[in-house]
Design goal:
Blueprint: E1 3-7, H1 11-22, E2 26-30, H2 34-43, E3 60-62, H3 65-69, E4 74-77, H4 84-91, E5 100-103, H5 116-124, E6 131-135, H6 140-143, E7 149-154, H7 158-168, E8 173-178, H8 181-203, H9 208-229, H10 239-250, H11 255-264, H12 269-275, H13 281-295, H14 301-311, H15 316-324
Parallel strand pairs: 1-2, 1-4, 2-3, 4-5, 5-6, 7-8
Antiparallel strand pairs: 6-7
Helix pairs in contact: 4-5, 8-9, 8-10, 8-11, 8-13, 8-14, 9-10, 13-14, 14-15
Function: Catalyzes the reduction of the glycolytic intermediate dihydroxyacetone phosphate (DHAP) to sn-glycerol 3-phosphate (G3P), the key precursor for phospholipid synthesis.
Binding site for NADPH: 11-12, 32-33, 49, 106, 255, 281
Protein name: Glycerol-3-phosphate dehydrogenase [NAD(P)+]
Length: 335
């Protein structure tokens, strides 16, 4: 039987563990908090992140990462992106020799501007052939109700994507494969930044024209950055690109959209952070995305104003003026 360890008992980690368990994989969740782990292991519920959701009885949980990873074919990493390096360094001695490391994280590392798969290869000391990425329009609030959804599993090794696709493919959860790890990761990370911008616009009371413009021009920013770093442009028209972007920018279930909406309504950063119970990855990753763009000399004006609003004290109104007062350009440029 295929075995998996899912490291992280947040909403997405728990949900993906549920998917693997339902698909017949022997799955163990790891978490730091003993009370959450015990509730999952004995009560088959994660009361902290998924209250009221019945988890498969076959799903186990532990506070011991070594126990979780023992004999695992897949080690699934489901922690906030900015904590990956520190956590993975401690887990490295317990990773099975041939296990595939699977990233559920949608972020770019601060300071290094590295994608999560790059951090995994560096810290775990594994070749890229042993790393996979899962990304797509996968809002947990719908998945826990087992509403139909699709995702992308990406790796440079077709055998790895095939095995992971089989492990997480269910009647209500459809997995597609892709070999473009770079594009899949960039789509997942940058869409969070664009969702913040769309949320700010919605909070300001601006209409559908503005939201559609931000999403479309946001996709153009993702494509420009992708072209610069070697991604396949077709990836951004797929589930990990446009699909994830649309879901994250439009759904009230989206953390990043909701975070931006609160800012647009006039809440301060401190108030917005206090009102946000879970990590909105775009809040920190917007800086690293902008750093990556500047490294490759890629123009990303929406990302720039998001950084301004979230980190530099710019008001939403000032951000709108900056975007609308830019010099006229062709619709397609910089690609």
């Amino acid at each position: 039987m295929t075995k998996a360890a899912v490291l992280g008992t947040g909403s997405w980690g728990t949900t993906f563990a549920m998917i693997l368990a339902e698909g017949g994989t022997s799955t163990t969740l790891w978490g730091r908090r003993a009370e959450v782990v015990e509730a999952i292991d004995r009560g088959h519920e994660n009361p902290e992140y998924l209250p009221g959701v019945r988890l498969p009885e076959s799903l186990r949980a532990t506070t011991d990462a070594a126990v979780a990873m023992e004999g695992a074919d897949f080690v699934v990493l489901a922690v906030p992106s900015q904590t990956l390096r520190g956590n993975l360094g401690g887990w490295r001695p317990h990773i099975p020799e041939h296990a595939v490391l699977v990233s559920l994280m949608k972020g770019i590392e601060l300071r290094t501007s590295k994608r999560m798969s790059e951090v995994i290869c560096e810290v775990a000391g594994v070749p890229e052939e042993r790393v996979a990425v899962v990304s797509g329009p996968n809002l947990v609030g719908e998945l826990i109700r087992r509403e139909p959804a699709a995702t992308v599993v990406a790796s440079v090794d077709d055998k790895v994507t095939g095995r992971l696709q089989e492990a997480c493919h269910l009647p209500w959860f459809r997995a597609y494969t892709n070999s473009d790890v770079v594009g899949v990761e960039l789509g997942g990370a940058v869409k969070n930044v664009i969702a913040l911008a769309v949320g700010v616009a919605a909070g300001m009371g601006l209409g559908d024209n503005v939201r559609a413009t931000l999403m479309t021009r946001g996709l153009a920013e993702i494509a420009r950055l992708g072209a610069a770093v070697g991604a396949d442009p077709h990836t951004f028209a797929g589930l990990a690109g446009m699909g994830d972007l649309v879901a994250t920018c439009t759904s009230p279930l989206s953390r990043n959209r909701t975070f931006g909406e609160n800012l647009g309504r006039g809440m301060s950063m401190a108030e917005t952070i206090a009102a946000t119970k879970q990590t909105a990855e775009g809040v920190k990753s917007c800086e690293s995305v902008l750093g990556l763009a500047r490294r490759y000399d890629v123009e990303m004006p929406i990302t720039e104003v998001v950084v301004g609003v979230v980190h530099d004290g710019m008001t939403p109104s000032e951000a709108a003026v900056l975007l609308m007062s830019r010099t006229p350009k062709p619709e397609r440029y910089g690609v």
